[in-house]
Amino acid sequence: MTYKSKFGFGCMRLPLTDAKDPTSIDQELFNEMVDIYMEKGFNYFDTSYAYHNGNSERAIRKAVVERYPRESFQICDKMPTWALTSEEDNEKFVNEMLDRLGIDYFDVFFIHNINTPWFKLAETHNTFEYIKKMKENGTAKKIGLSFHENADLLEKVLGKYGDILDIVQLELNYLDWEDPAIESHRCYELCVKHGLDVYVMEPLKGGVIVNPNDEIKEEFNGFNPDKSIASFALRFCASLENVKIVLSGMNKMEDLLDNCDTFENFEVLNDEEREFLENMALKLKESVAVACSECGYCVDACPEMIPIPEYFTLYNISKNQPQSNIYRLYFDKLGDEKVPADECTYCGTCIDYCTQKIDIPEELEKVCEHFQSGFSPYAGTP
Ligand code: SF4
Ligand code: SF4
């Protein structure tokens, strides 16, 4: 395996024609991006039953499956663990996914997002046994699970099922590497111990890493003005030996081209760069109010349907750029009939589902204080 072959196309955040409609994938732009990606010799696409409400799979069918020979690309898809209500659902979802994609086998198949509640669901409905059979009968060439939880749970899961799995897809990036809540480093070492390949998701932590404040941007520019912040983050992950795929979710052509360049001219991270990134991680942690990766799992769990990540994003920008027009955007969201942050009932349901271990109700309270305490949203804005 070469470093070049580690670059995977993440299809969770594809380009949209309407920013407010996650199903409105810009198929024309996606097709163009796929063509460039394939032409440059890359071939791995990662999707799930849930991404873009099912339209990620349909868009891959149109852009990849219907335009390229089956043996020229690889597709990874994932069981919607949270939606399982019976053992029969395993087959029902798999058939639906194959149908949406227009294929008859998966190159890689994962149980999606094993956390404490969904691990129980997967065990209750025999999903580990089911994916083992998928591998035996050729429906999946390799199997595994995607995982955002802490190392203790991973140790338990791999202790029981490590011998039937090939891969663990981990959240891994230089910000989370030594983070005590995410424990990327410990999780990676557990995979190594069990002889499993690691596929990386969130190498940019949902964009947190590539959108730092101006001071951090200047430090990167001073360190190496010719390389993007994203390129360092991708190289950090791909330089690890057991990492076999690093996903990047791209919705702009310039991001795709930059990432292609990183992997076409790949250089293993050196000690000086590693030390620099460790320092940047510390600074970034201090500067980000809420380290939300915008994965959206909390929104599905929230009975009030509060658009939690949207509020956290605005809050982070507003804290870092106090002079920005962001207050207005917050109130515009309410104008769009989004449920206000102060409708949180503190039920705590979302906390178990947060991939970043954020105390969501506590942070939402801060969002409310920040945006709503005696503030006139349109005062002084153009
Ligand atoms: S604690 Fe608040 S944000 Fe979380 S699920 Fe309950 S109402 Fe929603
Ligand atoms: S608050 Fe947590 S679960 Fe919700 S989008 Fe952010 S990281 Fe994901």
What's the helix and strand layout?
Blueprint: E1 7-10, H1 27-39, E2 44-46, H2 55-65, E3 74-79, H3 88-101, E4 106-111, H4 116-124, H5 127-136, E5 140-147, H6 151-161, E6 167-171, H7 184-193, E7 197-201, H8 214-223, H9 229-238, E8 243-249, H10 253-264, H11 271-287, H12 297-301, H13 308-320, H14 326-335, H15 360-372
Parallel strand pairs: 1-2, 1-8, 2-3, 3-4, 4-5, 5-6, 6-7, 7-8
The protein binds iron/sulfur cluster (2 copies).
Task: Tell me what the structure shows.
The protein has about 375 residues and is an alpha/beta fold. The protein folds into two domains: about 5-285, NADP-dependent oxidoreductase domain (TIM Barrel, Alpha-Beta Barrel); about 295-370, no CATH class. About 45% of the residues lie in helices and about 10% in strands. The chain is built from 15 helices and eight strands. Strands 1-2-3-4-5-6-7-8 form an eight-stranded parallel beta barrel, surrounded by five helices. The longest helix has 17 residues, at about 270-285. Bound molecules: iron/sulfur cluster (SF4) (2 copies). One iron/sulfur cluster binds near residues 292, 294, 354 and 356.
